[in-house]
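stage 2 :: seqdesign
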């Protein structure tokens, strides 16, 4: 049985109370949710259900929107890929934020967002697209190639480490062995740092120029035998109808 979508093991009791009551629609709880997002960034926890509740409050109360909090929610959602949380959060943002940066948009409607937020969303969408297409080496080069990315992820403690763990989790579901050079690019690590992460964090084995990934239920090749359970009398009815004369 899967984990419920609204479950978060580290959710505080007062947040749980708000989410389960009518106060989740009360604009006065916006600051409570914003503080909770800050706590998630600092303590490396994650609560998609609460973050979505805050984005919905922003939808109905755009004057309360904080660009920094919105950006942090999107960055946190990247750290749980390949789940669709980033796209889900993106769908709750105003349409003008999702379009390319436009000064005219900002001037005509400054209460509901501005050009910097739109640019941040576009930048983070690029990272999400690279992750979704498993272009991990390009993800790291893009992240390191623009100073704006450093500002966007600065509030999320351990962002790079979290991303390495998620990439490693995806790799473990698909491979039993990987070339060392390829994996170094995917994790953006080399030398002792690479060995320490692969062996100490992941529990894999570095054997020369190859990294061995232990078998698990996802990466183990298994033969699938498909057996049809069709009885003869089912065929007989089909054959009989083929010879019946239409009325």
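stage 2 :: out
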């Amino acid at each position: 049985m899967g984990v419920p979508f609204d479950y978060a093991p580290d959710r505080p009791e007062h947040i749980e109370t708000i989410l389960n009551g009518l106060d989740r629609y009360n604009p006065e709880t916006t600051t409570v949710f914003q503080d909770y997002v800050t706590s998630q960034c600092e303590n490396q926890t994650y609560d998609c259900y609460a973050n979505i509740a805050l984005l919905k409050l922003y939808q109905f109360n755009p004057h309360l929107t904080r660009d920094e909090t919105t950006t942090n929610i999107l960055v946190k959602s990247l750290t749980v890929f390949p789940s669709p949380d980033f796209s889900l959060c993106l769908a709750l943002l105003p349409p003008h934020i999702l379009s390319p940066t436009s000064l005219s948009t900002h001037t005509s409607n400054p209460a509901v967002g501005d050009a910097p937020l739109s640019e941040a969303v576009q930048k983070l969408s690029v990272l999400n697209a690279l992750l979704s297409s498993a272009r991990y080496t390009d993800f790291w080069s893009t992240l390191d190639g623009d100073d704006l990315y450093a500002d966007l992820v600065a509030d999320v403690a351990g962002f790079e480490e979290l991303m390495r763990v998620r990439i490693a989790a995806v790799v473990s579901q698909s491979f039993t062995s990987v070339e060392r050079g390829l994996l170094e690019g995917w994790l953006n690590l080399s030398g002792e740092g690479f060995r320490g992460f692969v062996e100490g964090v992941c529990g894999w084995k570095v054997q020369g120029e190859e990294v061995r990934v232990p078998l698990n239920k996802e990466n183990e090749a298994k033969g699938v035998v498909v057996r049809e359970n069709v009885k003869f009398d089912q065929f007989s009815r089909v054959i009989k109808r083929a010879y019946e004369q239409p009325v």
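stage 3 :: structure notes
- The first helix runs from residue 13 to 19.
- The radius of gyration is 24 Å.
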